[in-house]
Specification:
This protein is mostly beta strands. The protein is 3% helix and 39% strand. The protein contains two helices and 33 strands. Strands 1-2-3-6-5-4 form a six-stranded antiparallel β-barrel. Strands 8-9-10-13-12-11 form a six-stranded antiparallel barrel. Strand 18 (284-288) and strand 19 (297-301) form a beta hairpin. The chain is elongated and about 85 Å long. The two termini are 38 Å apart.
């Protein structure tokens, strides 16, 4: 085995330095500065490796979420002495429920290296596979380069396969766990399995002589891999009542530009539904009831500064309508019902720091009114009915991280009241009625990407609750 029975497989394949697709497929993971594993890049955002690499103790469960220890992945470099690689932090783990397999999400996409395709055909006895990894060799504890060797499939089980070195001197050692076993076809190289355990025959420090190993099959995990790899970080969030049940739902644009809807389920957020794609270039995305039908629509400012209105049509969004231009210099765009006519109006902070109200008249922004100035330094600006009187107020996080509430006073905004501090670290702040009591609550995504709701109690935010099922934000 890669390690003794019951010991976490933090275990390179002794052999030649891989080239071409085999080299591109092989990644090195550094976990907590204490141990290393190997893996394979299977999408610009994901590396697949052995779940046991992340066990805190032998047999311990690996929990979905951020790694317990800081982890980096080195991709696109087979020689660790040559600085021609991408080193990226791992920010999220998704273990397979019954196999020594985990998907490790990268904090930023690796676009410079082509991911390896996962095989769909099962391995067969007698088939030859190229195995690769960054582990120790017969003479080096921490080698400077990845290694690759040819192995033959000896047996195929339901979840694993047994392989044996094709030639003497090839071996799988500590540091190889999670590394790829690759099939070469007439048209491509594909990933069949990853290293699970090995006898380590010939490895530095090992006394065993057998060169066989056990691999975790991936060819039958296509559905799980595909579904899991859709879960990339969100670039932006917005909150409003999409479903029409008087509780705020959450909409988010992920780093690939897909627009997702996360329904409020009474306690947290239910599994998401995709509403669209191609939103990656939008500077602002706002969920709000622009039409006045009780369900949120979506407004968006594209990369040309055009303001678009996407009507809610039941389960999706209808063809957009252009309702403005020249919005590219606006630092903040938000929307809620300012004049209590049931339809959201639009507020924006321009390049000069002026806060403007654009009144929604029959779904057209026919006129604007200046509500204030000095808003250019604000980190976050939100229009929402915080008081519960049917008129939008304004909440803002200033440069010092104070959360300020500006009450609507008829035609303008009253002097602000501070309702919080320490908000500078929040990646995004939203205001919408989460509890369904008619007053906007505050939702915030903290520095770790976790979402919280701060309940509005008497125009104060006395406590917060983490939102179950909330997506993680980049």
């Amino acid at each position: 085995m890669l390690l003794g029975a019951g010991v976490p497989a933090a275990s390179a394949v002794q052999g030649d330095v891989p080239t071409g697709a085999a080299a591109a497929a092989t990644a090195r993971l550094e976990i907590g500065g204490k141990r290393a594993c190997s893996g394979a890049l299977v999408s610009p955002w994901w590396v697949v490796t052995a779940a046991s690499c992340f066990q805190e103790s032998p047999g311990a469960a690996v929990v979905r979420g951020a790694p317990k220890e800081a982890t980096t992945a080195t991709v696109g470099r087979t020689d660790l002495t040559v600085m021609a690689e991408k080193v990226v932090a791992v920010d999220h783990l998704v273990p397979h429920p019954d196999r020594d397999v985990v998907l490790a999400r990268l904090s930023s996409a690796v676009d410079e290296v082509a991911p390896v395709k996962v095989a769909t055909a099962a391995p067969t006895i007698g088939e030859q596979l190229t195995v690769a990894g960054y582990g120790r060799t017969a003479t080096q504890m921490v080698p400077d380069a990845a290694h690759a060797s040819t192995y033959t499939v000896m047996a195929v089980g339901a979840r694993t396969l047994e392989i044996e070195a094709h030639a003497r001197g090839a071996t799988i050692c500590k540091g190889d766990a999670g590394g790829p076993a690759l099939r070469t076809t007439a048209t491509r190289v594909e990933l069949v399995a990853i290293h699970h355990t090995a006898y380590q025959g010939g490895c530095l420090g090992a006394t065993n002589t057998p060169q066989g190993a056990t691999e975790s099959r991936l060819d039958d995990l296509g559905s799980w891999l595909t579904t899991t790899m859709l879960d990339v970080p969100l670039a932006s969030l917005t909150a409003a009542d999409w479903s029409g049940d008087a509780h705020a739902d959450v909409l988010g644009v992920d780093v690939r530009g897909n627009l997702w809807y996360y329904p409020h389920d009474g306690n947290g957020l239910s599994p998401r539904t995709q509403l669209g794609h191609g939103w990656g270039s939008f500077k602002h995305v706002i969920a709000t009831d622009f039409s006045g039908d009780g369900k949120a629509d979506v407004l968006g400012v594209d990369d040309h500064g055009r303001l678009w209105y996407y009507p809610h049509n039941g389960d999706a969004l209808s063809t957009p309508v252009l309702i403005g231009s020249g919005w590219q210099t606006f630092s903040h765009v938000t929307a809620d019902d300012w004049n209590s006519d049931g339809k959201a109006d639009v507020l924006g902070v321009d390049a000069d720091g002026k806060l403007w109200l654009y009144v929604n008249t029959d779904l057209v922004l026919a006129r604007r009114v200046q509500l204030g100035n000095g808003w250019g330094s604000f980190r976050q600006v939100m229009a929402a009915d915080f008081s519960g009187d049917g008129h939008a107020d304004v909440l803002g996080v200033d440069a010092g991280g104070r959360l300020l509430y500006y009450p609507h006073n008829g035609g303008a905004l009253s002097a602000p009241t501070q309702i919080g501090s320490g908000w500078a670290k929040f990646k995004q702040v939203m205001a919408s009625d989460w509890t369904g009591d008619g007053r906007a609550d505050v939702l915030g995504v903290d520095g770790d990407g976790q979402a919280w709701v701060y309940g509005n109690v008497g125009l104060a935010l006395p406590a917060r609750v983490q939102i179950p099922g909330a997506p993680q934000m980049k």
